[in-house]
Specification:
By secondary structure, the chain is an alpha+beta fold. The chain is elongated.
Length: 620
């Protein structure tokens, strides 16, 4: 038992005051009577000089003492210690709001249950306790700091909504520990389903942390999700490949249905899944559509938000490539035509680049004064301009250093047997990074300049044997794919709450993006690439780009990460380090949480007072 307001103990004097009233003798008045024969006892009492009398059995006295005792106890605020409230004088309360918390168990989602647990902590907050409320989202957010106001804490908690995105549990824990370390006698309560990962305490520095409590949200593990949905345009329409994953321990049966962008039913097929197994479904000759929607229907499925997935087929349209090579370069012309992805136009001067936009500009031995609309492949630069710090030529005297073998431009490219006579020496270029280097100079660079993707080959192809090596066509196709993602691939799929690089069509004057919920926003972007902060919405996004009198419409899909489909809850273990253990031994005992009994005591006191009134009315 804990007394939360012991300073009200002085009110207990009301109990002896009531007793004193019953000990005092009654005061009598003089009256004339005809005879005193029947008043002998009264006379005896009048003759006694002591002002007090013995206590007699009196029901009213008992009820009044009991009511007074209950009122005094209520003022002292007795409370029982509990295990589901705050765990220290200052508690950092972390609430997981990631996609797996959308899993439904019974009538409520895990997130709704987690909020109820958080409300219990707030409701049982002691008078000298405070709470810092943190949302563990993609970026952890402090909602309310070091507050004892239960109403403000409840309002802040009610404003938190669950998201289909991921949660950065490590960052949230780091933030919570940093806040807890700033105040003595602090603890952390984490409410969630474990976030799919176990975080060792060794990742954080030792702090003065009194305790850590993990409140598990949810118990179910059965879930079926669409893992992958890819479509490819064909002469008859499109072919689709779908992978369905079973994350549970039970066999599952269901049906998958395919719709077009106008929600017209195109195809359907049943499927069966072994425990923790996968199923692949293939759909042929789907009617042409700019996007396709796959939906699965399965029983005993914990999470519904991963049962739907959009796919945008690979684009079949050709891009436009402009080759500016005054001396002519047959090798470049032929490699640009490989695969039939581009309509190639040959130009003789850099000034012609400003006439019409192209998806990819290839400058061979020519440096334009101004970068044109579109991505750029620059070969053998020979002069300096405001965007290119050219510093002359230098003979190649040493071998090659591959700086980034994982780059998409160097995939399957063997540069070791390439020989080059001389390369251009270039100064520092913001946004560009070297891929191949010889000595202190970069031979191949890639990056972004003024919002355009740029690849620079700093030597003359005619003064090297690169065009005779297998590395040449492979490298060129990698470079063209990276420079022209609009034509070679659809806009990549995104994830809610994360950045997504959107390739832009050169020459567009207005771009409008429509979200799955129907709202639209205008993109203020220049160049050929735009990094978009994807909102917390899954589904199909539509990008419309105005080009003169025409309009180009493209789509891309945003889906939950597969990790959120693994809804099996995991416990989060954060063990105290050695330094923490030493501090805990010396630190005072952390303040706990209590269930206040004041309400029930007041209610019982009112019942007693009502009973006393009824007893007095009946004359007992």
């Amino acid at each position: 038992m804990q007394w939360l307001s012991p300073h009200y103990l002085g009110f207990a004097l009301i109990i002896p005051a009531i007793l004193l009233l019953y000990l005092l003798k009654r005061k009598y008045e003089n009256r004339e009577v005809a005879s005193i024969l029947l008043w002998q006892q009264m006379l005896t009492e009048l003759e006694v000089s002591r002002p007090f009398q013995k206590l007699r059995q009196n029901l009213l006295l008992f009820l009044q003492l009991l009511a007074a005792l209950l009122i005094v106890l209520a003022l002292l605020q007795p409370a029982w210690p509990t295990e589901d409230g705050a765990i220290a004088r200052h508690t950092v309360l972390v609430l997981d709001s990631s996609g797996s918390m959308l899993a439904r168990e019974g009538e409520f989602t895990r997130f709704e249950s987690a909020k109820q647990e958080a409300k219990k902590v707030i409701e049982k907050l002691g008078p000298d306790q405070s709470i810092t409320l943190i949302e563990a989202g993609k970026v952890p957010k402090v909602l309310l700091s070091d507050s004892s106001d239960q109403t403000a804490l409840q309002d802040a908690l009610d404003a938190v909504t669950v998201r289909p995105g991921t949660a950065d549990s490590r960052a949230a824990l780091s933030l919570a520990k940093a806040i807890a370390s700033a105040e003595p006698d602090s603890g952390i309560i984490w409410i969630g389903d474990g976030g799919g990962e176990e975080i060792p305490a060794a990742e954080s520095d030792a702090i003065n942390l009194q305790s850590f409590r993990f409140v598990q949200a949810g118990t179910a593990a059965e879930n079926v999700a669409i893992g992958t949905f890819a479509t490819q345009k064909t002469a008859q329409g499109a072919d689709g490949l779908l992978r369905i994953d079973n994350y549970g321990a039970k066999e599952k049966k269901g049906k998958v249905t395919i719709y077009d962008v106008n929600q017209q039913l195109l195809d359907a097929a049943p499927f069966e899944l072994a425990p923790h197994g996968s199923h692949s479904a293939v759909f042929h000759s789907l009617p042409a559509s700019p996007a396709y929607r796959a939906v699965i229907d399965v029983e005993q499925d914990g999470l519904q938000e991963d049962n739907e997935l959009w796919s945008v087929p690979y684009l079949a349209e050709k891009g436009r490539s402009a080759l500016v090579s005054p001396g002519g370069n047959r090798f470049l012309y032929e490699v640009l035509k490989i695969g039939g992805r581009f309509d190639v136009e040959q130009l003789n001067t850099a000034e012609a680049a400003a006439a019409n936009p192209a998806d990819v500009w290839v400058f061979d031995g020519v440096v334009p004064d101004k970068l044109p609309e579109g991505n750029v492949l620059l070969i053998n630069p020979d002069r300096a301009v405001h965007w290119l710090p050219y510093k002359g030529k230098q003979q190649v005297a040493s071998g090659w250093d591959v700086l980034d073998q994982a780059s998409p431009l160097l995939q399957h490219v063997d540069w070791s047997q390439v020989h080059v006579d001389s390369i251009a020496r270039l100064g520092q270029l913001a946004g560009m990074r070297g891929l191949i280097r010889t000595g202190e100079d970069n031979a191949v660079l890639a990056g972004t300049i003024d919002g355009r993707r740029v690849v620079i080959i700093a030597f003359d192809l005619h003064q090297s044997d690169l065009v005779l090596r297998p590395a040449f066509p492979i490298f060129m196709q990698n470079a063209l794919t990276w420079l022209s993602p609009v034509q070679s691939l659809p806009i990549g799929g995104g994830h809610p709450g994360e950045p997504l690089e959107i390739p832009l069509t050169p020459g567009a004057v207005k771009r409008v993006l429509t979200l799955p919920d129907g709202t639209s926003e205008v993109l203020s972007a220049q160049g050929t690439s735009f990094v978009y902060a994807v909102p917390e919405q899954v589904g199909l996004y539509r990008l419309e780009e105005q080009q003169g009198e025409g309009k180009l419409t493209r789509y891309f899909s945003v889906q939950m990460r597969e990790a959120e489909s693994q809804i099996a809850p995991r416990r989060m273990h954060v063990a105290a380090g050695q330094a923490q253990a030493e501090q805990s031994e010396q630190a005072p005992q952390a303040a706990g949480s209590y269930q206040d009994l004041t309400f029930w005591l007041v209610l019982l006191a009112l019942i007693i007072v009502f009973a006393e009134w009824r007893v007095y009315q009946r004359g007992y």
